[in-house]
């Protein structure tokens, strides 16, 4: 398969066929993100993408069940181009069950509700969205390019179109100073969206990012394992009226808390209380960075 740059995909897409529809990220300015810093963003042509799909069909036959369209924010493509790609996928892989892509709120809201309905009808089944926080101060610190209101609007647009939504939250994104408001406001935003999935990642500063420089200078203080767990507890406590499934499917997390709301909420809080009763030395070094 042809691929330019590093492959990034959600852990839940480990078994998926990955087709590169865009190279890099059209935003590429989040202060914590190192993923596409070396890439200059560009859209690949629909013809090139269709060629890749045909190659994959020749290689895998029709055994493919899930497909992830990479890289960051592939949804920035014109809707009719994406629809053409989705139709090509359905034609070449008639047994495909799930087609997904990354999409952050800033770019989701650039499309109209009717575009999202057209994309769902063409076969787009799930958006993986890095909202990271629902707190405006944290979002500004991250230079996410969107505020909490924009995240709610984007999330509701995806859900209203009948597309599954996986929202990613970064535990510790506000450091020690903004921890409480990050937890509470992230929960408030998610309560208004009711995404299908909420996925937790714990902040590990990545070398070469502005946030890493702040951390090295002492201007950004990482949470200790117990502080990160307490933040997660506060976040879960404030999640109400939703039917989302929460996962901690990432190596950065201190504890694998998971469950479905509303029934598993109390059990999830108990899981965290147990983790909080353990000696902090048992957890990974909080100062560990991503290379
Ligand atoms: S976090 Fe997402 S939107 Fe932000 S720079 Fe990285 S890939 Fe782009």
Structural description of this entry:
By secondary structure, this protein is an alpha/beta fold. The protein has a single domain (11-277), classed as Aldolase class I (TIM Barrel, Alpha-Beta Barrel), CATH 3.20.20. It has helices at residues 46-60, 79-92, 105-108, 113-122, 136-142, 148-160, 179-193, 210-217, 225-237, 265-276, and strands at residues 17-20, 22-23, 42-43, 66-70, 98-102, 126-132, 164-171, 197-202, 245-247, 259-260. The protein has an eight-stranded mixed beta sheet. The chain has a two-stranded antiparallel sheet with strand order 2-3. Bound molecules: iron/sulfur cluster. The site of iron/sulfur cluster (SF4) has 11 residues, from loops.
Task: Note the overall shape.
Answer: globular
**Widest sheet, order of strands:** 1-4-5-6-7-8-9-10
Helix/sheet category: alpha/beta
Listed once per kind, the bound small molecules are:
iron/sulfur cluster
State the separation between the terminal residues, measured CA to CA: 26 Å
Mean pLDDT: 96
Main sheet properties: 8 strands, mixed
- Could you state the order of secondary-structure elements as H and E? EEEHEHEHHEHHEHEHHEEH
What integer value in Å does the Rg equal?
19 Å
How many domains make up the coordinates? 1
Could you name the CATH topology?
Answer: TIM Barrel
CATH class: Alpha Beta
Low-pLDDT stretches: none
In which range does the helix fraction lie? 25-40%
The name of the CATH architecture is: Alpha-Beta Barrel
GO molecular function: catalytic activity; iron-sulfur cluster binding; metal ion binding
Cofactor: [4Fe-4S] cluster
Organism: Dethiobacter alkaliphilus AHT 1
Pfam family, one: Radical_SAM
